[in-house]
Model the fold of this input.
Amino acid sequence: MPAIRQLSQSLINKIAAGEVIERPASVVKELMENAVDAGATRIDVTIGAGGSEVVRVVDNGCGIAADQLPLAVACHATSKLAGADDLFRVGTLGFRGEALASIAEVSRLRLRSRPAGNDHGAEIEIVGGKPGDVVPCGAPPGTSVEVRNLFFNTPVRRKFLRTTQTEFGHVSEAFTRIALAAPEVHFTLHHNDRQVFELAASDGWLERIARFFGRDLAENLIAVQSTDDDDGSGGQARQVRLDGYVANPTHSRSNNRMQYLLLNGRYIRDRSLQHALGEAYRGLLTTGRYPIAFLRLQMSPELVDVNVHPTKLEVRFQDSGRLYSQFLSTLRGKFLTTDLTPRVESPADEDPTGGHDAGRTSELRQELVDWAKGGVCGWNAAPRAGGATTSGPSTGGGQPLELTRLEGRFARPGDGSAGRAEPSVGPPTADRTAGRNAEFSPAAPALQVHNRYLVAETEEGVTIIDQHALHEQILYERLRQRVLSGAMETQKLLVPEPVDLSAPEAAAASEHGELLARLGMIIEPFGGDTVLVAGFPAMLANFNPAEVLRELLAQLLSGDRPPQQDDLLDDLLHTVACKAAIKAGDRLAPEEIASLLEQSHLAGNPHHCPHGRPTALVFTREELDRRFKRG
Ligand code: ADP
Ligand code: MG
Done:
């Protein structure tokens, strides 16, 4: 039977260090946080060889008295918590009193400090956790911490360090997170004697964002702000302030790392809020793209527990549902009143790195030129031979589509059918038209060109609408409302239709039966790889049930399918909306054009179809004037 022994303090510290100090970037984070907590207005960070050789952080903060230096590097010693209650209202970045001790355990650490009022400083050196004596020294007011040879006494850890470049990448990210959260502090970062950043305090937050992420992005940020007072009765104590910037959907990333969420000056990650962010951008970004955001949350420290994660990267909110709603409604409300239509710019101004729409833009330009030359098919012109054809019987034989037929089937957004996880967002429908969406007012004359685009005069200039994309977006938004409120209409089949599937299709069908049912697609097993379609989405009444089922299953089986149920559902909604929407190549009657434009305000955002392509392009009058050399 093995004997149980008390661990030595040194071993305890090494274990603790493993939790907090993973790599040089962790050292940078902890030292910078201490400097911010000390009230510094200037913080200089110097890195050697990715931080494995040296990390030095110098600040002009409050300093540490000579007799306190040994305590500062002792474990579980902090000046930031007085009593147990303080743990539930943490106003500083640090509070666990373990960072300096942990770092000192696995490096050679020199701590030098001079409190503001003193005329000289003192220093202490700790090598692998063994503290030396405190000795007086000359030093400017503030604190300087130098960490050399990280993990010199824990070779296993040292082996895990990556290349200088990789480690510096992490360091740079740690630096960014803290410098973003403290725009009132002057920061510098040097790596191997090269200056990487010099960030003045005076520049403001947007400028700081621009310094880190480039001017182009900064110019495409949309400011958002909101204050949630709870029910108003809680007063200041329960107030949650949100402010910051989110990027125009033209700027997105393939991962969510560009989502900077700062809670009371602390960078955090929060799945729920990230999800809210994704929700707010639903329909604005292509699947697999993530929004960019810089958001600051301010709330009383009592409303959040920051003591749930050793590096405090994650926190626990008292009322995360409320925050979720605030996020979603603030962003959605903003988007509804913001014009997100991509502007067509002159070739000279065009981003040479080529926005993904460059090709399409020039194609549209050509269309406009054709139109101007008189080669336009009005609504009485016959559909062009060779134009896109559709498989749907609803458009067969060039029959005009009855858009109004669809009209009655769906609730208008905002008429009380907001779904479970879907807080009511933005102003009610009537107000929406007050935003930029009013530009599609049916009063404006519109012309169908090439049976695929609608050209409308607007106050601003000329808007060119992709008829399929717009209709798809409208249908998608309605479907979403329906599905979220559980009111999706199913068309029951009198005689269930058997459909033979491939083995993977059959597996997907049984795995996702419930999901499909939410869409109105009701299937039952029929033995082997055959299923019975008992009901299917009423909106697709004109399509072949087997074909619809196969398409939905193909979506479920596609390689890049999202793991989240909700995202999966969303993909299926895209599929249904895309299928049901009028196609490019469908000739529209004037009433249909009017009807489409009239409904455009029902789309959550009329400017992008669910695939993330724009639904409309605007040629401003100024731009036209310029091109015709009038301006
Ligand atoms: P914590 O930050 O959780 O309190 P640390 O181990 O990081 O724990 O620091 C221990 C203590 O040392 C802090 O509580 C603080 O009093 C002091 N300290 C550390 N760094 C600085 C600094 N740069 N300026 C002033 N005091 C500091
Ligand atoms: Mg600390």
Q: What stands out?
A: The CA atoms of residues 570 and 610 lie 9 Å apart. Residues 346-362, 364-439 have pLDDT under 50 and may be disordered. The pocket of magnesium ion (ligand 2) is lined by residues 30, 33-34, 94, 99 (CB under 6 Å). The longest helix spans residues 164-181.
